[in-house]
Amino acid sequence: MCVRVRFSSRATPRLFDPSTRTITLPASVSRVHTVTAVRAVLAQLAVVQPELGAVCWCGEPVNLLPRVPQQRRNEQVIKHGA
Question: Considering Cα of 62, then 63, then 65, then 66, what sign does the dihedral take?
Answer without folding.
Answer: negative
